Records
---
Amino acid sequence: MSAAEEWSDEEQSLLEQALAQFAGISDVKEKWKAVSKAVGSRNARACAERFKACREVALRLKQQEAEGGQDDGKAAGAEAEAARDKAEREEAEAQAAQEEAEAEAKAEAEAAREAAEAETRDAERQRADAKFEAARKEAKEKDAQEKAEREEAAAQQAKGGNKKAAEKSPANEQKAVVDAGGVEEEVVMDEGQRRAADMRRQIEANREKLRLRDEEEAKKKAKKAAQDEEAAKAAQAAKKAAEAKLAKDKKALEEAKAAKAQVPGSVPAGSKGTGKGSGPAGYGSQAAVAGKGATSTQPAGKGGLAGKGGSATSQPVAEPKAPTKPSASSPEYKGWGQKPAAASGPSPAAGPKAAAGPKAGAGPKAAAPQAPQGPVPDSWDD
């Protein structure tokens, strides 16, 4: 039996002692861990396999002894059954220990993998930091180089401007005139002084530009304000002229109405005639011609066309116009062409009664009223 040969007598003895010692532990994993610690040189899995092999040997021996005798066989069978049950339990314990060992190995492998991944992430982060630092350093160097180039270009530009100014000067040198108590002295300026002088001149020029711009804006604002004021004045004057013209036209219209009302023969609105004739003498029927609401131009006195004192000038009577027939859709079409019903009172066409003549025998009778001249309309609706 190879499994038994691999174990020494001391290890076998330690295993048996450990099994007897920790037989009361119900937890299989804890039991085999304790057995492995007691043996010392074997792990839990090896101890379980050794126990399994020993159990199989014991079962075979018991089976052989059972075949030798009936009594011995029964006893051996019972023992074998018990040993088999125990072996099954121990086998289950060994399997559990094996699963635990596999789980531990798997956990260790997972931990190692996580550690490797963490190291990889750290390395990548370090590489990214190094790359960022290199890019930042490169950008900083580039900025410094560009700044140096700008300063050099500015210096060259200032130098060129100073050179042009020196060429324009009579002495062909960069000099400044200093007035000290009325005494002018020429002082040769260095590069820094020339640049400062150029800067001052540029500042003064900018100030002058700003001043001129402000003055121009102020002039524009003043001009716009004056234009707005003139426009407002013109609008006010136009408004006043329109009001004056309207008042003048209104006054002229009123004067025209008043003059028209004063024309002889016109009948002012609301006036009422007397109905009396104005012949110089005698009685007449001319009063009927000047009906109600009209005035007569004859001199005062009773008379008529054939009265005493001769003939009298009669009031001209306007010739009535024939009414125009309205259209069928007009509201005035209703009743067109129908004669009005006879009124109970006196006819308006008769005019006022003639003035009472003198007593019988005093003079001739008054003439009959004359009919109005012109065509008589068919309808009096209008």
---
Amino acid sequence: MHPLLYGDLTLCLALVVCAQSPSCPSLCTCVLHGRSNAKGLRYSNLFFQVRCICKLTVLCKNPALTAIPVDLPSDAVKFRLERTSVSRIFRGAFSAMPELLYLWLTYNSINVLHPRSFTNLSFLHELRLDGNLLSSFPWEGLRDVPRLRTLGLHNNRLARIPPLAARYLANVTYLDLSSNRLSTLPNDLTALWPFSDSTQTQRSVVLGETPHCRSFVRMITKMKKANVSQ
């Protein structure tokens, strides 16, 4: 058999594995994205190994949806809840998806987040809650997502950020607070976003047009200059 046929056969087998349809919640769609990685090919006796890497995305985008589905697939790496009528996120709402990396809950009607909404999501990297009705955020709930890097809270109703938020933002490198109702910020801005030294991981805070935006930028600039001069 010509060596090129091995590649074709490998791809075929990989597609068969990745094309297996997972059980999908009602009013949602599930999409598998996969690629193959073939190793150990032998021309003489047709021996080869195939590894298929499949990633599952779950999209729930239906105005008739009023609650997080309970039959979520356990192997999902991305969950998108968009433009639904969901208003409350209860404790452990996503705990059935322990491999989740991306959680987008954007442009719904969410006004209540349980402090333990994100239990069993220790691998989560990105959490987006843009375009909801949150007047408060359970910052202590971020203890359940130690690998979180991106937190999007754009276009909500947040009026203040408590100083205690600092202790739960240590690993977050991108924080979007724009288009909220922020009129005050913690007096000690370094508590909210620590800049301990010039070698620290680059971080971004998006505040948008708030009364404190310009003063915040000036203070961050001064802190950076001070760190560089030390």
---
Amino acid sequence: MGSIQNLKVAVFGAGSIGCYLGGYLLSAGCQVVLYGREKIKWEIDLKGLVLTHYKRKPIQIPQGQIDFRLKYDDLEMADIILVCVKSQDCEEAADLLRHKAGPGALLVSCQNGVRNAQTLEAVTGRRALGAIVPFNVTSIRRGEFHSGTEGDLMIEQDPDERLSTMVKAFRKSGMGVKTTPHIRDYQWGKLLINLNNALSALSGDTLRAGLSQKPYRQVLASMIEEGLNVCRGAGINPQTFGKVSISKTIKILRLPDLLFQVVMNRIMKIDENARSSMLDDLEAGKKSEVDFLQGEIVGLARATGQYAPINSVILAEVQQAFRIHQSPKMSGSELLALLGPHNDPDPESDYEPDQEPEN
């Protein structure tokens, strides 16, 4: 295995996720260059980089140890490039990387969605691996990025020694990381859970605030259930990347409020500051990633002769919110009313709270 200190990592698209991943690698001793926007560079130049976590100790990196660039100079020197741009910007990023990345660079797509690694590989001609970032990261102050949910980074398995070195670096820094040869199935599983991002954008509130309302959870359960059925109808088998199966997650979401809180506290930690990246994008006037989440389900349904009315309704509402650059700040009951005839009938959940969570 190569030396952590000699591993050169570029973070392409150093926003909240990119700064968080890059900061952890930097704290482990890797040579890291962050490529991103002027606003974040200004904040980091002013304050340094602070990475906080609901459970782990904070990581503080002073300004002088951070190499943050606005231009893509020296990108060809990177052994590994973590691609952290939003899915809607992936093709543009891939075209730039085709010209700027070194011919032997290993690309790792740390993006939502299920097709970005394939896009990167096809356009750039470099090896591109899929990855899943299951935890939430939000910018809470200048230069400070907070992860308020649990989960281990998951990366597609590959024999490349540089990947093994990066995994070692992440673990040294305190971040959990796993590798798998079945990343595509896990990406579909994460996509189903990420359908919540759209509801969070429509509610205009934190993840915890949304999930505390049963009508909100009913909409989420119906979206995930519909998406799961569409995937299975297309011959796709989404895999669980958390503590419980997707089918059991649907049942848990439909529990009464008090019982839901008891079960949720056992299987998932979400602190009061955790927000969805889609809500952050909406408030910042950026483009939406919803076409690569709800839109992926709707598109798959159309391509395979199926129908996804619930995801279609939410997709349209989010697109409208981004057109006017404002969250409608809908309550759970208002979100549920959007579904009309597709309203969740509020079935009795047969989830047994005394069961052990699935691994």
